[in-house]
Amino acid sequence: MTNTTDRIDWALLAISGDCSAGAMSDQPTYIPFQKDDFPLISAYLKAQTVTQTLSVQDWFDNVIVDGPGSKKTARQFSNAIRKENELGEDLINQGVFHHKYHKRTEWVIVELDENNYPLNLAPGAKACSKK
User: Fold this and answer.
1) Within 13 A of 93's CA, how many CA atoms are on the CB side?
2) Looking at residue 5, what DSSP letter applies?
3) What is the residue-wise DSSP string for 28-76?
4) Separation of alpha carbons 77 and 39, rounded Å
5) What is the pTM of this model?
6) For residue 128, what are the contacts with CB-CB under 8 A and spacing of at least 6?
7) Are strands 126-127 and 29-33 parallel, antiparallel or unpaired?
8) Are 84 and 44 in contact (CB under 8 A)?
9) What range defines the domain where residue 99 resides?
């Protein structure tokens, strides 16, 4: 059992992309994080959600239309991708993310158990601790 002074309560869990189950590994990756990392993680997850929703909106506005489409949606989508990428680089520089594959992964926040392992997740997931 982990010493309570070493306990971390939260982690990012890969749900889609390079570090998720079935992509580069059979098991998902999770990244435990500290309180100090949370503001940047929160900003990144918000940017990720905006990018995802604008991706779908861009598809509706520019892919399945007969006509010129929406330059506004395309521009917003492009800006959202840029912001998400910049925040991902900040997470690499802060030591939370370790490589580009973490940036190419979709994440959710999960609670960790007393052994610093994600609750309700089958054994075998790979932890990537902060550098």
Assistant:
1) 7
2) G
3) -EEEEE-GGGHHHHHHHHHHHHHHHHHHHHHIIIIIS-SSS--HHHHHH
4) 23
5) 0.84
6) 29, 30, 31, 98, 102
7) parallel
8) yes
9) 4-127
Q: Which of 117, 118, 87 is nearest to 103 (CA)?
A: 87
The amino acid that residue 60 corresponds to is: F
DSSP 16-31: EETTSBTTTBSS-EEE
Place of tokens 């489409």: 69
| pLDDT 10s digits, 3-41 | 455 567 999 999 999 999 888 888 899 999 999 999 999
How far, in Å, CA of 111 to CA of 32, rounded? 9
Number of separate domains in the chain: 1
Rounded to whole angstroms, the Cα distance separating 117 from 119 reads 6
Q: Report the alpha-carbon distance of residue 90 to residue 85 in Å, rounded.
A: 9
